[in-house]
Specification:
Elements lengths: L2 H16 L32 E4 L1 H4 L5 H6 L1 H7 L3 E4 L33 H13 L3 E6 L3 E3 L3 H5 L23 E3 L5 H18 L3 E4 L7 H14 L4 E4 L6 H4 L3 E3 L1 H12 L6 H12 L6 E3 L4 H7 L2 H5 L3 H10 L3 E5 L27 H14 L9 E6 L5 E8 L2 E8 L5 E6 L5 E5 L5 E4 L2 E6 L4 E6 L2
Length: about 475
């Protein structure tokens, strides 16, 4: 064993010892290099899936489960198949933010937010969603609870407290409406196991997106997800974190935070297009073999706090949406993106999306992307991916997915200027159909490219 291996082993042992120490003593986990290890993998139903995030409060004028249930046929027509509901639980009232509070200040892990309806309403939604071919994942807030969650009164030992016995909000944030759980207490693990199992057994939930997963020790997640998989083996766990070690035993996929930042930087022109390659390389080095990331151009955090995709990406919005579907990962659509939602949704009060009565020009765009992801083997998570060489690497991003007999080539000009370049790759030779225009073209291995500002082409092999 070399010195580097010994160093990693020493750190791993130290990290293991720290994971169940009180939070105030636990070191923040660094990103480990896990490329020489194997990821836990993922359920097959996720590998061609598209995640659609639903903000129930803002989804409709009614802001309830019944309205989402009534809209399922439209989502079926869009083609998405994995519905992620933001937290559905009652919201704390003590130290509440805004008039309605944050979904992530959970007052009762086993209850339903009365804004959204009743458990019968949620059950009706789940039944309808499953009958129409959807999978449903819930948002799980495992790091902290509302101040007035009954656990704080009944089990104060579940929480991190100072020397005076006062509950503590998570450090480093302005999350004053929540208090930090203490993962050194095994009873916290037992309680979360019970609560997560409840929604799986009683309502048929298909998995969980785990909020602020970085704030919870990896060893805790490892044991928690192991217990849940003994209840149902094909549950999907998505980490709102980019810690590579999360995917060794616990999570099937993680957030592509680095790629989100890279997309924003390239869209703003502060980084060149090849910055995307730097980001992908870093992920390959860190992630275990078979690991996966979720890619997106918007979600509830980005939309409310950083701005809409139109604010951040401007005229490149569509091109980057194409990229998020063509990269090897799992694509996400935030509710409203398919109709060009161009405002920041309020977070602590009602601010419903206004849906058009007759569709929107962006809807067919997303339908094409979703259909390709759902049906073409080249876009399954884990299918081969590599960049194609061009003479315009700082403006054109050319991407090959799949292999002989099942290929998709994506050509993107990720700048605000026209791009002229030549591409070369033997894989380009053959007959192709443009997924958006239907045009059929025959290419040689060398292809002259002329792409307008922010233009994109997605070519599907006909051979």
């Amino acid at each position: 064993m070399n010195l580097l291996s010994l160093s990693r082993l020493s750190f791993a042992l130290a990290a293991s010892a720290l994971c169940f120490a009180p939070l105030s003593l636990r070191a923040v986990e660094p990103h480990l290099v896990c490329a020489d290890q194997t990821a836990v993998g993922m359920p097959d139903w996720v590998r061609s899936g598209v995640v659609y995030e639903i903000n129930v409060r803002q989804y409709s004028a009614a802001g309830n489960f019944a309205a989402v249930t009534a809209d399922l046929p439209r989502l079926r027509a869009l083609g998405v198949d994995i519905l992620w509901l933001m937290p559905i639980h009652p919201i704390g009232e003590v130290n509440r933010k805004g008039p309605l509070g944050s979904y992530y200040a959970v007052r009762d892990y086993l209850g339903i937010n009365p804004e959204f309806g009743t458990k019968d309403d949620f059950r009706a939604f789940m039944t309808a969603a499953h009958s129409q071919g959807f999978r449903v994942i819930l948002d799980w807030v495992g790091n902290h609870t509302a101040w007035d969650n009954p656990l704080a009164a009944d089990h104060p030992d579940y929480y991190l407290r100072d020397d005076a016995g006062t509950y503590q909000p998570p450090t480093g944030f302005d999350w004053t409406d929540v208090i930090q759980l203490d993962f050194s207490n095994p009873a916290v693990l037992d309680y979360q196991t019970m609560a997560l199992t409840y929604w799986v057994k009683e309502f048929g939930v298909d998995g969980y997106r785990c909020d602020y997963a970085t704030g919870v020790p990896t060893t805790f997640w490892n044991e928690l997800t192991a217990r849940l998989r003994r209840v149902r083996a094909d549950l999907f766990f998505l980490s709102e974190s980019d810690l590579p070690q999360h995917q060794l035993h616990a999570f099937n996929a993680s957030y592509g935070f680095d790629m989100m930042h890279a997309i924003n930087a390239v869209g703003a022109g502060t980084k060149g297009v090849s910055h995307l390659d730097d980001t992908l390389t870093r992920s390959r080095v860190r992630l275990p073999a078979g690991g996966a990331l979720m890619y997106y151009t918007s979600n509830h955090d980005e939309n409310s706090w950083q701005g809409t995709e139109f604010e951040r990406l401007g005229a490149g919005t569509a091109a980057f949406a194409v990229l998020s579907f063509m990269l090897d990962g799992i694509p996400l659509i935030y509710n409203g993106q398919e109709i060009g939602l161009d405002r920041r949704l309020e977070f602590f009060e009602r601010d419903p999306i206004i849906w058009p009565g007759t569709g929107h020009a962006l809807t067919p765009f997303y339908q094409i992307l979703v259909h390709l992801r759902r049906t073409h083997p080249a876009l399954r998570t884990g299918a081969p991916m590599r960049r194609i060489d061009t003479t315009g690497q700082e403006s054109i991003y050319a991407l090959l997915r799949g292999q002989a007999g099942s290929r998709i080539v994506t050509l993107l000009n990720l700048t605000g200027k026209e791009a002229l370049a030549d591409a070369y790759d033997p894989a380009l030779a053959g007959r192709w159909r443009d997924a958006f225009t239907g045009e059929e073209v025959t290419l040689a291995a060398t292809v002259p490219l002329e792409l307008k500002a922010w233009q994109y082409r997605v070519l599907v092999s006909l051979e």
